[in-house]
Amino acid sequence: MEEFLQLLAAGLTRGCVYGLMCVGLALIFGIMRVINFAQGDYMMLGMYFTMLFTALVAAEGSTAAFYWAFVAAFLSGALFYGLGALSHKALIGRVTGTRVVSMEDEGHTPQLLLTLGISLLLQNVMLMFFNSTPRSIRNPLSGSSWQIAVWGDQVIIFLNQARVLSALLAVAITVVLIVVMQRTRLGRQLRAAAYNPVAATYVGVNVNRAHRTAFGLGIALTTMAGATVATYHPFHPFTGFEFVIIMYAGVVLGGMGSVTGAFFGGLVIGLVQQLSTLVLPVQLQTAAIFVVFLMILIVRPQGFFGRNVERA
Amino acid sequence: MIQFASSPRRQLTIVAVILALGAALVALTRDNYSLLILTLVPIWAVMGLSWNLLGGYLGLVSFGQAAFFGLGAFTVAVLAHDFGITPWIGLPVATIVGGIASLIIGAITFRFRGFYFALAMLAYPLALLNVFEWAGWSEIAIPMRRDAPWTHMQFEDPRIFAWMALALFGVALAASLAIERSRFGLSLFAIRQDEIAARVAGIPAFANKLKAIAISGVLAACAGGLYALLLLVVTPVSVFGMLVSAQALIIPMFGGRGTAWGAAIGAAILVPLSEWLHGEFGAVLPGIAGAVFGLAIILVVLLLPNGIYWSLTDWLARRFGNAGQTVTPILPTVDATREESSCKPAPGETLLEVTGLSVAFGGVQALKDVTFSVQRHEILGIIGPNGAGKSTLFNVLSGLVRPDRGQAVLGGSMSLIGRSPEDICTARIGRTFQTVRVFRRLTLLENVVTGAFVKFKTDDEALRQAWQVLHRVGLAERATQMGAALNNRELRLMELARALASDPDIVLLDECLAGLSAEDIGHIIAILQRLRAEGLTIVIIEHTMEAMVRLADRIVVMDHGTVLVSGAPSSVLKNPDVISAYLGKRWAQHAEN
Amino acid sequence: MLKIDHLSVAYGGLIALRDVSIEVCSGEFVSVIGPNGAGKTSLFKAVSGLAPIVGGAISFDGKPLIAVEPSDRAHLGIAHVPEGRQMFGQMTVEENLLLGHEARGRRATKGTDLDSIYAFFPRLAERRRQLAGTLSGGEQQMLAIGRGLASSPRLLMLDEPSMGLAPTIVDQIFETIRKLHQTAGLTILMVEQRAVEAIESCDRGYILSSGRLVSAGSRSELLANQKVKTAYLGL
User: Is B58 within 8 Å of B192 (Cβ atoms)?
Assistant: First the structure.
């Protein structure tokens, strides 16, 4: 029982962070209908940024480093919003958006391949600069945990502080995003561009600009999630790829195009990943996720939580 | 590149020359490093060809070729390592394993479209990687057999591996080129351009896709097996890893997508390049090869979206001005008239009986209790204002939409409901679409011949039928034009010809006169009347009233998904309900004032 | 206000409009009628910047539209109520209206705000929090028109407002449109398949058939015109 609760807690904390990653991807997919293969690799860049920033402002291994890392997470959001928008303007925008609606298969193949190319480029450039040794932001808090007693000292659950803080931050950011999407003019415009680009143009929404914003935001969100992960999880140039499958599984589970759904999708994947170790050996975690992913695609491709946005 | 029924001689000569040159190059090379590269190039070319079947001909981007590659590699390795079985047996077994795996994966994954397909295919090799690592097969080494090296495919002279790889490449290349010349290749290409149009023309999409992935899997597994023998050590990451799938994809995309030569060009350039980069700079700049690959993909997507081969041929065509494409041979004489239908037309015999068809889409009742019949040899017109449900009716009759209620019975015995579009085409019902579905990158002749495959089993017969049909609609001189270059009238006639190519009893024509000039309309009406005299039954949706009146024997008027009235054209058009459906209730009042 | 001058639109080989000239002056209600396939929707798409123009020009207030981004044309005051309504079905009635409202751009904020839209369409006010996709056909049409109105447009373009609606609802919609023109003096360009309602409502009208202008005239002229019947019924 204790193991179950422990895994449940771990799954929830992990899942919240996955949720934010998925939200970033869902934003891009939901609004632009672009499969961004490089999502995880931008996130990886964010992790390195966090590490470098923290090293710059705080002594290595200090407690301050931990908190500065969270500051860096916010900064990375801003920075990578810009990077994402730039990527869109220079590269992605050439093969997406209103330009390609009439192309064969709506231009999906060039999008897939372009983002694959960016992914390879980012991974290997970072490999050149930083080599493949896993890095991390070492600090005392990464290893320390809070102890929660359940049922009066019968069962004790350990909650890693860094993970919990990351999870809370992820939830907070997601809530802010949902509010922005639902209540603000920007959110309305982004959703309009997603649901019906032609009608959106008729009411004055510049769809291509909306896509740029969405791409930048999507990258920023996933990167912020990743930056917090950097405080407790070692990373290397190919880390992005490890998370990409999780992100896609979460987004599909939640219903492609639904931001809220994606968050819950990521949460479920986190839970599945942890709880599966009850019955499966640890090494098969990833395979378990794949199986879940495939099952969802077969049984319910429109996902569980969000509303179906699929056009025809 | 698709060249249906063209002569194999020129291509096979080129293949033979390439192989001969390659073999000679291998023979002259002595240092092991160069030989390694000379062996890897054909192996990766085979992987490129394997990807090309799905991603080039079918247009389904696969990120999962590594699954078959890895299975092939591990089969050979495990059989040699754990059971001492020689690769002479191991390689064929690997090939079979690849084939079976591909059929299973295809059966599961082909129900997905576009990016869902790509994502799912991505999952397989990575799941396999995970499973194999967990299962303890993290490193399988093929044991050295000094006692009987040749029986275990362990040759001292590394050139032999290079020749084997070249041989495999030769087989794969010849096979791909053969596919490009065959109806199978043309079918794949048609499915890629417009799956619905292909199915309605009688091409079984699912069966063709399975065939394609099976061949793809077999090739990839074979390449994987050879790879294992070359490196002598197999790890999950090295054969199931993302880089394998990425390379299988980049090589044909870079070299030229959709053509067998592309894979060869891509491998010949990229493999030595990446090995050289890795060798020269790998120590100082690890990952330089991957970075260059990434950059290569980005540049290709933005600048040469279809790869080097196509950019080259386009440039050459512009420079030297010739057509470039091999012209499909013109058959000498074709009998333009058709024999009278062998069936004695029974006057007023009901060919198709539609009763009570109802379909609702998300709250909107598109068809409500539609009932009418189609008599043999008649031209039945279906008219009605926009949104009346006419195209939906055709979609139900051609198997693209399933009705909630109702029946459509052909010839008194066969129900159309629940049948696939291909089956309905086999049942001799053809159709055209409101917006013409042309295979843009195929010629007019190729567009039409796809319709002939369902009935004419040899390529010659199919081509003959296609030519005959083109003559019947008067388009024979434009046979070699690209689908994208046809004008509106030609597009309409093309769709009619494609539908006729399957030798149907009934054709459903959906607004085939839209957007045409009065002269063109007259021209097509004459063709339709002649077709009917030759025994065809026609059901036609139209808006152009004058044409309808000239053409139709009977008219069915639809509005808001129901049948308003049916009967002879002159009486129907004077019917007050019909007039108000079109012009508005008060028209008659105004007319009186 | 709007001047369409010898416009030709072609999608590849398919010529949708051939040498069409239409003019809408401030305060007028102009109808363009014609059977299906006449090119009516292509006309509006061209004004909104989403159709491939191969000849001619369109100008608004004397300034050529070719230089204006499609999404900026709404800011100029051209409200396009599309064929089939094109709701943002997963957004609420209020959100749909807000989107239209936010298309005002730099034009004066005084004037139409959402309250006046709700006053004009009480049914929408009742359903303001309802998802647009769950409204009935007639309500959706009202919402589409409301969305166009919310941007305080100078020109309201209506693309086949009657499409897919039951006859009684159609009457209501045209009644509403006529009221808008009369009470607010709104300049309206309407494209319709249903000849009678369209001609009855307008000041002037054009008949489009197979991409060409077949006839033009005032309301009374068109009502008496036999060409209308020929265009539709070929008689």
Answer: yes
The shortest C-alpha distance from C156 to chain B (Å) reads 23
Under the banding of pLDDT at 50, 70 and 90, the label for residue B74 is: very high
Q: Collapse the DSSP code of B534 into the 3-class scheme (helix H, G, I; strand E, B; otherwise coil) and give the result.
A: coil
**Residues in chain A closer than 8 A to B258 (CB atoms):** none
Q: How many residues does chain C have?
A: 235
Which pLDDT value is given to residue A253?
84
Which residue is associated with the tokens 């009516």? C40
Which residue from B504, B485, B489 is spatially nearest to B425, judged by alpha carbons? B504
CB neighbour list of residue C178: distance below 8 Å, 6 or more residues apart:
C201
Task: Supply C97's token pair.
Answer: 């209206």
Cβ burial of B85 (10 Å; 0-12, 13-18, 19+) is middle
Q: Is C77 on the interface with A (CB under 8 A)?
A: no
B414 three-state secondary structure = strand
Pairing of strands C53-60, C29-33: unpaired
CB contact under 8 A, C196 and B586: yes
Whether B123 and A284 lie within 8 Å, measured CB to CB: no
Instruction: Name the residue in chain A with its Cα closest to that of B195.
Output: A105
Whether A191 has its CB under 8 Å from any CB of chain C: the answer is: yes
- How far off is chain A from B190, nearest CA to CA, in Å? 13
CB burial string B158-172: b at 16+ within 10 A, e below:
bbbbbbbbbebbbbb
* Amino acid found at A57: V
Cα B376 to chain centroid, rounded:
34
> CB–CB of B385 and C197 under 8 A?
no
Interface test with A, best of B109, B126, B400, B401 (most A CBs within 10 A): B126
- Contact flag A120-B122 (C-beta cutoff 8 Å): no
- Which helix (DSSP H) or strand (DSSP E) does residue A21 occupy? helix A2-32
Confidence (pLDDT) at A196: 86
Q: Is the pLDDT of residue A64 over 70?
A: yes
Pair of tokens at residue A251: 């987004």
* pLDDT average, residue stretch B471-491: 86
Burial of B387 (0-12, 13-18, 19+ CB in 10 A): buried
Closest CB to A204 among C74, C86, C89: C74
Task: Answer yes or no: do C151 and A188 touch at CB < 8 A.
Answer: no
Judging contacts by C-beta atoms under 8 Å, the chain A residues touching residue C91 are 188, 191-192, 195
Closest chain B C-alpha to A70 CA, distance in angstroms: 30
CB-CB neighbors (< 8 A) of C223 in chain B: 590, 593
ipTM rounded to 2 decimals: 0.86
Indicate if the pLDDT at residue B332 is higher than 50: no
Of A184, A244, A290, A237, residue with least CA distance to A24: A244
Give the angle subtended at the CA of A226 by the CAs of A222 and A228, to the nearest 5°: 125
Q: Which residues of A64-75 are buried (b: 16+ CB within 10 A; e: fewer)?
A: ebbbbbbebbeb
Which pLDDT band holds residue B554 (cuts at 50, 70, 90)? very high
From residue B329, alpha-carbon distances to B49, B325, B449, B498, C8 in Å are: 27, 12, 13, 19, 39
- Å from B487 to nearest chain C CA? 5
Q: How many CA atoms lie within 13 A of C184 on its CB side?
A: 21
Q: Which residues of A touch C73 (CB under 8 A)?
A: 204
What is the 8-class DSSP label of residue A233? Answer: S
CA distance linking residue A34 with residue A113, whole number of Å: 11
Whole-angstrom distance, CA of residue A87 vs CA of residue A38: 11
Residue B49 has pLDDT above 90, yes or no: yes
Distance of CA A291 to the CA centre of its chain: 20
Contacting chains of C (3 CB pairs or more, <8 Å) are A, B
Report the distance separating Cα B367 and Cα B388, nearest Å: 8
Which phi and psi angles does B558 have, rounded to 5°? Answer: -115, 150
Judge: A301–B116 Cβ closer than 8 Å, yes or no: yes
